[in-house]
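Record type: monomer structure entry
Structure origin: computed from sequence
Chain ID: A
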Amino acid sequence: MTSNQHTHKDNHEHDQKDNHSGDGGGHANHEEIFRRKFWISTLLSIPVLVFSETVQGWLGYSIPEFPFSNWITPVFSIIVFIVGGLPFFSMAKGELKDKQPGMMTLISMALAVAFAYSLASTLFNLESSFYWELVTLIDIMLLGHWIEIRSVRQASGALQELSKLMPDEANLVTEDDEVRTVRVSSLEKGDVVLIRPGESTPADGEIIKGESSMDESMITGESKPISKKMGDKVVSGTINGDGSLRVKITATGDETTLAGIMRLVEEAQQSKSKTQILADKAAGWLFYIALGVAVITAVAWLIAIGWDVNVLNRVTAVLVTACPHALGLAIPLVVAISTSIGASKGILVRDRIALESTRNLDVFVFDKTGTLTKGEFGLRDMISSDDVDDDRTLAIAAALEGDSEHPIAKAIRQAADKKGLENPEVSNFKAIKGKGVKGKIEGEDFHVGGPNLLKDFDIDLKGDVQDFYQTASKKGQTIVFLITADEIMGAFALADQVREESKETVKKLHAAGYEVAMLTGDDEAVAKSVADELGIDTYFAEVLPENKDEKIQSLQDEGNKVAMVGDGVNDAPALTRADVGIAIGSGTDVAIESAGIILVDNDPRDILRIIKLSKATYKKMVQNLVWATGYNVIALPLAAGVLAPFGILLPPAVGALIMSLSTVIVAVNAQLLRRVRNEI
């Protein structure tokens, strides 16, 4: 780990503490500081460039002298050095403390030499100065560092989003059977709370009175509401359905299931390995090379000519030429352009390491619900009795389910609407708790409900309906029956709908040589059905949140580079643990905060675009790094004076020009990355 990474790690941990306590400072403040310093320094650099004799000579203009005009350049340069340059010295101190000099040390050394030499040239009328090189170097390094730390600012957002699932208040039932509002933090084990319809569960507990359905998708990933009755367990953060519940608290605070998920997210964030930045490595090597060449240059020239101002010129030329002017932008500029390209294609890159790592992935692991599927019920199949038309059966069921907001009811209505059916009028409608609904249509009684409803009518499945039921059950589908005159008029099989885009994505990933796996909290039958439909060979069913995290870890332990694609709170630990976390944009905020890459358009096919963008981005990074450091191979020996016997010397100003030219080439090369926009 480089010292630059140590600095980021320390800042990251400090930011997490701040954010946990409700203070949103941290990296956002760090980023704002460098943004402000960049703009201030850039504005203050304008007079330095305008009054620089070197720049005037290049552009062919001159400024008339006036009292103290010769002090404009040094004064403004000193201000820029103090405002924008000193922060790099602070960061270099950390690198030197860790005995790992790198980018910040090399930048600081060049700034110190350029500043000291320029100040000496003003005070002692030396041949040349480096004021304009000094300020532009500071400006470019501030810009690069500003862009860089923007990609670091992401760590604690997931934990904040998880905490939002917990309500602030709870309805405590007193011993006198009165209900009063209290803070969730004041709840204790054994307390009884009232959970009204639509409210969040304040803590883990056991139902002691009432029946309802609970939306546990944020915890288990299960798409359909789970029926709950007396004696069943409920989990903090889950949403109550249309029933009223009284729950005895069994776990509070850090002992709850949701708190456990939060711990997993935090641990995964802290344990996630930091890929060494190539630029840091190059800067570390370049530091020792530049220092070595500078020492050799000084010794060689002192032996050759003795003490002379030319010795100082040679050493200064070496150190200024070695300064990573281009290296400071080589990576951040490519990242800025690639993330812009991604955004234009509906791909938001929150973590540059995630984008860089995508090119090396081996396995793509998908959450099922809401990622490979739509996360909502759809009618997959139906059957009608021999003497009834399917449209008639579907229209009657849709009419009976007309006023229900239950996901199954919505799916039946949507199927009828899609076929353009006109639903008959219903009278004497009544909901049968836990079993379904009933009503009268054209004078005839009809019932719609699940298998429990059949027991009330003492109906046994047989023939085609029995085959239909068994086939749908094996696929993990939900079966609903339409009953009239004590007979089954029709049956409907419903299940979470698979995205068409998912089929194409899995097919192309397989064709490209990637392994595809699926994680889900659903049972084995549902998982196998979806995996078979999509052509996925590897799937993990009935996986709890902590097991999802473990599944990712197990794949990594086998030597695989793993990407996790998900959209729910239950995916957050796995998203963070994976080498690359990819969140479907329609997913919960916590999944998005836990991911390095977000698919805004909810299209899993964008994963194929991410792979192409990652490979193109890495290729451009390598090209820039080669150029940003490669010019030193030629420029450093010339700056040292190896061709002096042949009358060829590289003046410090020309060395600075070569350094600036390298920066321009790196910038132009980075811009060429935009051509990949039409290829993804």
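Annotation 1: The radius of gyration is 34 Å.
Annotation 2: The CA atoms of residues 403 and 409 lie 9 Å apart.
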